[in-house]
Structure formats: C-alpha cells, structure tokens
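Can't paste images in this forum, so I'm doing it all in text. The chain is below; anyone willing to post the predicted structure tokens underneath?
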Amino acid sequence: MSTGGRKAMGRKAMGTKAARGAAVLGLLAGLGALGAHALGPGTVLRPPAPAEAGTPFQDWVRRMEAKGIQVSAGLWDLQTGKALESHQPDLPLVPASVTKVVSTYALLRTWKPDFQLETTVYGDLQNGSGVVKGDLVLKGGGDPWLTTERLFVLAQDLKRLGVQRVTGRIRLDQGAFDTQRYGNGWENTTSDTTPPVLPLSVNFNRDDRGAIVTDPERLALEVIGRVFADAGILVENGGGGGATRKLLEFKSPPLRMLVQDINKFSNNFMVEMLVKRFGDGSWPRGIAKIQAFYKEQFGLGPDKIAITDGSGLSKNNTLSAKTLGIILRGAANDFEVGPEMVASLKVIGGEPWKLRIKDPNLARRVRCKTGHLSGVTTVCGLLQTPDGKQRVFAILLNGNPHEDDAWEQVSRWAN
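Text version of the structure:
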C-alpha cells in the first residue's frame, strides 16, 4: 500500500449450514449466557443483580446521564457469557465505527479469511506480437486495495503474458456494482469522510495529498496510464474495439489482511467496498445478507442488527451493548475465523496503530474497536484482567460524550 494511501485511510468449513449455526449458538447457551435471542427452548438469560448505589460503575452511569448522555454498556465473562455489570444493555444507540465489528465478522465467517477479490483484464492480444489490438479493459470486482504499487504488479503480470503495446485505450468496466456511489444515511453525517464507492477504485479514490477526488474514474485512468508507462507498456490511445479475451485475473490481498486494515485504521471506504461486493453490487442486498447471517447464526433479527451501511458512518444505524457483546464473544470463541477477527482489533500499547489512549497499565490487555461521530463515542472489544480473566465489553454513549468518558470505565473494568 502506498504511504499516501495509508495516511489517507484512517479455514475449512465446519460442515453443513445447520451444523455451523448450531456450533456458534452453542457458544452462547448455558447459565448467564450473553443473549436470549432465539437461543433455543429452555435457555434462560440471567442478567447481573442491580448494582448497589454508590458502586463505581453506577456512579459512572449517573455522571454520564447527569450530562445528558444515553448509556448502553456491559461487561461479560468471555468463557461463560455471564453478565458481570451492565446498564441498559439492550438499549439501541448510534454505534459509529464499532459497526465494523458487525460487518467484518459476517464477511470473515461467510467468505473465509483467504477469500480474494478479482480485477479482470480483457484485451485482444495478438499471438507472438506483444500487441493488444484495440482497447484494454479492466473490470473492477470490488478490490478495495488497488493501489499504485499493486497496479505495478498487475502491469508486470501483463508483461509476462507478452503485452508490450496497446493500440487502443485503457477502459474501465464498473458494471459489477449498481450506480449508487454513496451509502444510505450518509446525508446526515460528515460529507467528506468517505469517497465514492466504485468496483474499480484506485488509491482509495484519493489523490496524492489524501484528498477525496470528485472524478474517481479519471484518477484511476491517470494512475493506470502512468504505471503502465513506467512498466514499459505503450498505450497508443488509438482506435477502440477488441477486449473480448480474458488476459488476467488479478487478485486482491486475502480478506484477513483487508479486515485488519479496516478495523485497525477504521477504514470506511474499504468496508463499504466489501459490503457492496457482498451484496453482488448492491448496498441494500449487502446489508440484508449481513442481517440474515446474524439472524441465522445468532438469532439476532434486523431489530438488533439495525444498520444501513457497513462502516457506521450513518447515524441511522443502531446497535446495543448486548448485541455487540454477543457478536464479540461468538467471534472470540470461533476457532475457524476468530483468530483473524481478534487480531484485527486495535491493541492498547505494543503496536504502531494509531490510538489516542496510551495508558501503560492497559498495555496489551485491551483489544478494541472504537467509534466516533458528532455526539457519539463507542468502544467494544476484549480485555484481560491482571489475574488473567478474559472479558467481553461494550460501551455506547450518545449525547455529548468525550472519549475519556468511555475509557474511564474500560480502565476500571480492566483493572
């Protein structure tokens, strides 16, 4: 990935579908399990006893609510699912970027960590001549990591096939996605946070300074043309036509690497590219498939997974602390894709990912995903107490919170 691009960004199946569902649901069953959402007959949810007045947790909640902040928060034992402390854990609130936990786990579980997206190149390569007669067409497949450096690798792959000259032009095929370029609900949030989403997008649709471009196809053609010239492929921009023969399928990095960048950098553009591809080119279909996944695997209906995008940019999204806790606990106990999902979370201390909280007492004991919008601060993840106990936690604050408001309680839980 290019330095400019980085600065600009912020598994074999377990068996039948029914067997996979049973395996995941089994993680949540039993005494005090996190969820009571369609977990089967006889499942009993045992919430924690109401905290006594004056406990640090209740004092924290009262201070938040005194400032007009709505709170949905909870801490659960990772192994048993027993609720240890919570306040309005079922209250749906705007989640901001912790929505990416919901999206990326569904993608990992469905596609698997080694899944790759393809950019396909078509052209009429004349045998033994090195000449592509007519146009060379690049058909986008939703690869969100098509950077200058990786386009140079694509050019080298074409040269190994014998391509030296293109008599026509470079053309882009964006037919894999519908014409919707911005997600639902983005009109009520920051307009400059995420570029337009097209199935063939170069350098995250940002220029060398990191600014979002208004004409992403022009950017793509300029970068591809420059890369091809540097690689020694001459594009003559002459007559069109041709491009009927598939020359190359250029694969993206594996999904596990994409998910790591999405969650550690909180990259809105990358996850929305994947959600559209998940929906065969449609945002609504992609979101519907995510919701169907959680309904089938966890018994969490669309009322619990109430999202309109994959990144959390929309303020129309709502999730509760308990919903996030159920998903994180399921992911952490998922042998098939859990290690990749947990590794994608930010770690307090010990790695170079950008995170403002640098409490040395929490170093490498908290793995988390944070979220921020105007009036919204959220954090969820996994933590380990000093005596080695592992917990799942989620805090959603809506109103006028400060980031420290959430981390005050996370620090208390971790210690």
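The chain has two domains: 3-114+256-414, 118-252. The CA atoms of residues 148 and 162 lie 21 Å apart.
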